[in-house]
Amino acid sequence: MSTDVVGRPLSRVEARLKVTGGAEYTSDIQLPRLAHAFMAMSTVSRGRITRIDTQAAEAVRGVVAVYTHETMPRLKQPTYRPFFKPYIPIQSPDVHHAGQPIAFVVAQTLEQAQRAAELIEVDYEETGEPQGELDMGEAFLPPDGPDGPNTYKRGDVAAGMAQADVRIKAEYTIPMHHHNPIEPHATTAVWEGSKVTVYETTQGLGNTQHVVSEALQVPLGDVRVVCRHLGGGFGSKGPVWPHTVLTCAAARALGRPVKLVLSRAHMYTSSGHRAQTHQTIELGAHRDGRITALDHVITQQITRDDVVLFNSSEPIRMLYDIPNLSNEQRAVRLDLPTQSFMRSPEACTSHAQEAALDELAHALAMDPVELRKRNWSSRNMDNGQEWGSNHLRECYDRAASMFGWSRRDPRPGSMRDGDELVGWGMATSAHTAGGRPGSGARITIGTDGKVLVQVGTQDIGTGTYTIMTQIAGEVLGMPLSAITFDLGDSAFPQSYTSGASTTAPGVGSAVKRVCTAARRAVIDLAVAQPGSPLRGVPADRVDTADGHLYDTANRRSRVSYRSVVGHGGKPLDFTVEPTPTPLGYSVGAVFVEVRVDPLLGRVRVTRVVGCYDPGTVLNRKTARSQVLGGVIWGIGFTLFEHTLVDPATARIVNPNLSGYLMPVNADVPDIQVQFIDRPDPASDALGARGFGETPMTGVTAAIANAVFHATGKRVRDLPITQDKLL
Amino acid sequence: MRDFAYARASRATEAVQQVARSADAAFVAGGTDLLNLMKDGAEDHDLVVDINHLPLTGIEESEGRLRIGALARMADVALHPVVRRRLPVLSQALLAGASPQVRHMASIGGNLLQRTRCWYFRGEGFACNKREPGTGCAALEGRSRWHAVLGGSDHCIAVHPSDLAVALRALDATVHTLGPRGARTIAMAEFHREPGHTPHLENALRHGELITAVEVPLPAPGARQRYLKLRDRATFEFAVVSVAVVLRMSGRTVEEARLAFGGIATRPWRSPEVETALEGRPLTERNIAAAGRLLVQDAQPREDNEFKIELAQRALQDVLGRYTGGSR
Lengths: 726, 328
What we know:
The structure holds two protein chains of two kinds. By secondary structure, chain A is α+β, with helices and mostly antiparallel strands. In chain A, the strands form six sheets. In chain A, strands 3-5-1-12-9-10-11 form a seven-stranded mixed beta sheet, with helices on both faces. In chain A, strand 26, helix 15 (620-639) and strand 27 form a beta-alpha-beta unit. Chain B has one domain: 2-Layer Sandwich (Uridine Diphospho-n-acetylenolpyruvylglucosamine Reductase, domain 3), CATH 3.30.465.10. Chain B contains 13 helices and twelve strands. Chain B has helices at 12-21, 34-39, 74-78, 81-86, 88-96, 100-105, 108-113, 119-122, 163-170, 188-191, 272-278, 285-295, 307-321; strands at residues 5-8, 25-28, 47-50, 59-62, 65-69, 174-179, 182-187, 210-217, 224-230, 241-250, 253-262, 269-270. In chain B, the strands form three sheets. Chain B has a five-stranded antiparallel beta sheet. A four-stranded antiparallel beta sheet of chain B has the order 9-10-11-12. In chain B, helix 12 runs antiparallel to helix 13 (307-321). The radius of gyration of chain B is 20 Å and the shape is globular. Chain B starts with a strand and ends in a 7-residue tail after the last helix. Chains A and B meet through helix 3 of A and helix 8 and helix 13 of B.
């Protein structure tokens, strides 16, 4: 292990393919006899279909089939999570939300299918007044779900509050958000006899495989799922959504391949969203900043038929050394589509916690960095166990120094540049990483010395192809040009969903283990091979580098992988099974500068500095890109992202990239990123932890805290649009 | 979207005849709005007549006026030397609109005819008197952040989204057209209509009438000009409030004030009271504030857009405030 490739800021190994159009995405699939599908969606939010007329639709040239709830093949309701919907649409006349599929049209071309879908006539009976906004009077405490308990207590909150010298209490609201990956969700189903291949935009090949198997009653082994490239997912492609199984069913019934690509508008009602949330948070602290108690309640939207809640309160329960703590996750039922995880559920609770800490720091007249340091914990406060490593205090110091935090005048409104108010704010970034079932892997070293590593994982744009190639190169001691890392096929060894920041530690561990086994086998072969320069050398004296094995006691005794495996006469093949990855915690500190026009209320983020501890940095370029994406998203989250629901009809009114505002280049400031880059001894992936979601946490509160510092106004209702600062 | 026919016109009269012949035909220039409207089902055409090959792209100055061909692209007009030098408010308004890609495609004529961003109009199945007359207006009781507080009716409160139109309104431009009955000119003041009872009728054009040019009188050298656009993100977004200013000063006194507003009204908005209140008086913060109050005196806000009443006044303060120091 001496090639020193881990950490290098390599460009993506598939970059050339992507920029030359050679990367085939799911919606690019072309096949003989491929038919195109489009779905018609309900325009009411709560009701049932009383009449559906498809005559005009069927008359459109090129239309192959128009399925309604009366004619769609029957499907079995999947029980496998994450299939979150408690029903499959187009199986009954019931309408659960606006934008629910009510008909599935298949035609020779996409345009024909779209036109036919427009011509379907539907009458509805509306069955009640639809609710689209959180009514806190309707909040209830759901029973504990598959993602953990909805109530959590430690210590005695009332006693802790009584000990406090200072208490603050605040309410924070965050609207509904949508993922908006640039690549739309797409499914192409191809049947060969009783076996089906599903080309799918998915963050979890296994999820699609299980759900298709169950819904269509096909043995698991007869379902193959393929996803070579993904154009972003952000959680929306982790669950399996009904359109996938509907496409499989139509393709089976028609005996030809069918492709469905969701429209942008369809993605606002068909693939999850970030739930609208309301949070109350109460904090008590001693004068010296030590927090005595925290009381937190998060209320979020669910639907009338399901309870889909995630462990979004992890930051509240885990991060700070707070002895007395209560946390509750409540829900309100709305007539809107099913929510799902969105990079990341913890961003909401992190926002409230880090904004509340800023309020506490202000009330204590204490520096917000100092307040956080005084409540730092080396342990997972949820279960009391020590983290493998946690260099958060160093992150605070390094980021603060880079930012120039010591020059901050703490008084709100005190810093100006010309007519503009300047505000500096900070927050802690923290997200769990790992703690999931892990991954298998397979390696083949050919007689030509070329290496193929295969894992049934996904590259959701984070750089999985690249970092796994680097890990393989590092462990084998082989140049990256000799290594192909392949993913995106359920025929490869099983892996876990690319979500919850688990891919780097889970797949990384599997690649390391399988490469270690293969390397050892090649060494064993080399020291036993007649004529080998290493014949008779003790195996533990042999190391590898640059595609060669060598005797560490006599470096001139060396032989190439190619020569050893070539002389062996047959390729070497190894497989490892999944082993669970330990729960890690990737943390960081983020500092933000904003400028606010006091007359017009306009906020611009002008500078961001972050320092992060993700364990070993596997690739400084892709890791930095995770930070850039998280910070940029944080700007949108805090300043303008907002899915708007019409109050009368509970329909989403801005289901497109024109009405749903995300940051553009002009909104993005200078972003400086540093890493601690020290291995986590608890990680089996060369010391690396997952890092996908960490940079998305904290930054939203840091912006809001900076706005307070600039203006003296606490805007607790996101987004912070200029009208709120007038 | 249904199948439609496409025809390319090589002469303006031919284009006009082609569109005039069919009630469902439309001209297409840059296509940056029309194609979206068709995909969203907000417009339905059986024929689109491509006018991009007509010789209407010229920009010419003569006798104190600038004539801009209807097919000149936003980017070309914004960067034209005469526009930059003599009509900075126009250049700023164009550069504040859309994105570089869109500005290279979108035409001046098409920009004036772009339709409202009201999501109830653009979304399928909502009550909308613009989309389907007589169905009502979902925006009145709905989500109205981007809706008008001025010039609305019980039938529509949609904002006209063009930044260009706001600047042209302040500049007292005229629109040249060619219709089945010949050529005519329409003052910008008469071009866009308030919704009243007929929100689907948005401008003075008759079916088949083609904008051929926009003519702008060049303000006196030394006139202050500025376009201020306030929006929810830094760029590539429509205004929540915008102001176009053409101001002639004599010392600290306002000789002539021409102010047009976008984002707050159903059409590019001018208020004679506001201008009269400023003219002949020194430009002071107090007089600006008084003018601002006049601007919004008849405003009809809703829950989501009430802030525009305050923000529009502050925008006026910002845009005029920099000229209170006297003439240079």
